[in-house]
Amino acid sequence: MDAQPNSPEARDILYHLHAYTNARKHQETGPMIIEKGEGIYVEDSNGKRYIEAMAGLWSVGVGFSEQRLVDAAMRQMSKLPFYHNFGHKGHSPLIDLAEKLVKMAPVPMSKAFFTNSGSEANDTAMKMIWYRSNALGQPQRKKIISRKRGYHGVTIASASLTGLPNNQISFDLPIANVLHTSSPHYWREALPGESEEQFSTRLANELEQMILAEGPETIAAFFGEPVMGAGGVVVPPAGYWEKIQAVLNKYGILLVADEVICGFGRTGEMFGSQTFGMKPDIMVMSKQISSSYLPISALLINDRVFEPLADESNRIGTFGHGFTGGGHPVAAAVALENLNIIEERDLVSNAREVGAHMQKRLRELASHELVGEVRGIGLIAAVELVADKATKAPWGQPGALGGLANGLLQQNGVISRNMGDALAFCPPLIITKEQVDTLVDALKVSLDAAAAQVR
Ligand code: PLP
Fold first, then answer.
1. Which residues share a beta bridge with 113?
2. Which of 66, 83, 160, 367 lies in disulfide reach of 62, CB 3.0 to 4.6 Å?
3. Non-local CB neighbours of 247 within 8 Å, separated by 6+ positions
4. Could you report the per-residue pLDDT of 212-267, keeping only the tens digit for each?
5. Distances (CA, A) of 405 to 51, 266, 409, 448
6. CA of 191 to the centre of ligand 1 (A)
7. 0.90 cut: is pTM over it?
8. Does any ligand 1 atom lie closer than 6 A to the CB of residue 119?
């Protein structure tokens, strides 16, 4: 790019290494700089406005200009800008938030523990699970099963749980004791003629075979997102979670629901666990908990986890884990206000109703020559593009068509993200049906333009 010397673009290239970015290519393309946000829209440094159809990173539930969250932050910042919860100390926003989360949980939960990101929360979950196994006198029970295409973060442990190549190649991951079972993507993975139920049964059998081969007494937990997000928005097929949970229960294996994307309304229920009948022992939550106005994440643990953990901390003298910023009072105050807004404005119902509209409108594109599959639930969806609908073959390199369409869509005023060839849509929970129509119209125009380029 022709960045003016000393412009923000030029200084970005000089000084800033971006997350999830091709660092070499960035030296040519430079950044897209977002300056401000309002409702479901953001505006770039050229004054161009976009529908933020990813809610930032699947996270800005209440939109980009919620004054109540600003006020909540200011109030708490003036009163107590920082305190922690180490060594029996505490503060009111965190106690209020812990109580609220435990009471909101769809299954009986015992305690909330606070961290700063989804990755840290999953890392913490893994440590708690190992600690628990030791507490129970089962030191061999340390293996964790997650899924190919699952996403649980980028720290050493959580990137190991993640089942995506880019998070592991050249990072020397995954670490030991993490196993990956198949992704539940029916459209891609099912055998010819296999029904959704049959596919789910096959995956549950495969999981059981893995457990038996490893030794059931060595398996501690299974991690899964109710709906996979970053792996391409994979909605589980019929009967999937019921069958998986039957296997886990048979062998006394804990279930961790990674609600980092699904939590707080995304699927049209407060939690994805409700939508799919999951009964987790640990729930991991972040993102929409504070609409990402400030970083905060939380784990809810039930008594199956808390009781042995408490015993072990008593034996050792402390639960030797915690982050300086974990449960930060300003972030906790913002999260509380954000959850109040989600409840008062019934944004979960909005996600259900406007989400149904979005799913219907997107499915109208299923007949488009480039569309292989449209999938999703509530206000989360993906449109997967193919060059050949019959063989599901990509256009050139996997991801090339997704990248092309994503770029065109951005030119047409909508920010999405392509996970390979799947364009993801996860707009703020406040989106209206009219705004969804604008989004889908822009997508249609962009797909037509992409088709013209590739044919
Ligand atoms: N778990 C899920 C399901 C996620 O989608 C993400 C992030 O996208 C994470 C964990 C990691 O969260 P963070 O980026 O806050 O570390």
1. 299
2. 66
3. 204, 207, 208, 211, 253
4. 999 999 999 999 999 999 999 999 999 999 999 999 999 999 999 999 999 999 99
5. 16, 24, 6, 9
6. 30
7. yes
8. yes
